[in-house]
Amino acid sequence: MNNALDIALTRIMFTIPKDVLELAFQNKKDPSEAEFTLEELILQKVIQARVYKDTNIYGGKLKKILLKPEWITRLNYTMADAHLQTGPYSIYRIPPEARENLPLVEVHSVTYRGSSSGFFPGGAVYDYGMTALDLAADVLDSHTLRTSIQRPCVTLLSGDLVKLHPSQQNLQIWLLSCRIAYDSEFTNINTSAMDTFADLCVVAVKSYIYNTLYVPVDRAYVEAGFEIGSIKSIIDSYSDSEQRYRELLDQFAGSAQLDPERVLELAPLIMPV
Is the Cβ–Cβ distance between 72 and 91 less than 8 Å? Predict the structure, then answer.
């Protein structure tokens, strides 16, 4: 099995000279970093501090979650809500085990549980035959959805709070389509995104090196006259790494969409030309 972090670290170590890496990461201000290896410092200062946050904006793993009635948070209703026997919205607090102990990064929609669970919203079972008029009414209803249950709008409030509008008073169990974050080890990243992810980590380290060393190295050359030509030329070559990082982040967003589960989610939205 491919390991995304191992691939990224291997590519970093084979792309950037080790002397430059040690020079950029040797300033261990935190005493707890005294025993950290070079790879651990790269993970902590660059990949976890920056790449992890940026990739979760566009990436993450698709997840289907049943919104159970017992997850609804009790809210304070106004007098108008009491008269209408309703409320402005419903809040669901999703427990960690339902989201694989990871925060939600985006919610897409809610839908019915589907016929595979034996649930047919708005349907009725008849013990007698249907007339032609009844069949015509069903055909019309299939286009107008007059008798179907209205699907609420869903909004993500935080990593475990989801808001449904309007308020859910019918105790309907909805199926939530959402994205959960990558874990800290990126074990749930799709294979098609690993190559771009590794390149993204390499460029992120180059950007960190440029921002960390450019001014101190230049000052050492000007003030002390140290001969640091080769190192300075390497650092200067990383000047466009931030722009390249943004480009690779866009490419990663596209490769993350190639997750088979996300492709299946988007497939019904593709209209034939």
Answer: yes
Nearest to 106 by CA among 177, 51, 6, 53: 177
Token reading at 171: 């105790």
Q: pTM (2 decimals)?
A: 0.75
Q: CB under 8 Å to 140, separation ≥6 — which residues?
A: 146
Identify the pLDDT of residue 127: 43
Of the pLDDT bands very low, low, confident and very high (cuts 50, 70, 90), residue 126 is very low
Q: What is the pLDDT of residue 117?
A: 46
Residue 238 has pLDDT above 50, yes or no: yes
Own/partner long-range contacts of 181-184 (Cβ < 8 Å, ≥24 apart): 181/56, 181/60, 181/102, 181/103, 181/104, 181/105, 182/52, 182/55, 182/56, 182/59, 182/60, 182/61, 182/102, 183/102, 184/48, 184/52
> Above 60 in pLDDT, residue 59?
yes
Grade residue 214 by pLDDT with cuts at 50, 70 and 90. confident
Omega of the bond prior to 166 within 30 degrees of 0, cis? yes
As beta bridge partners, residue 180 has: 61, 104
How far is the C-alpha of 235 from the C-alpha of 224, rounded, in Å? Answer: 18
Partnered with residue 111 across adjacent β-strands are 175
| Residue at 87: amino acid letter | G
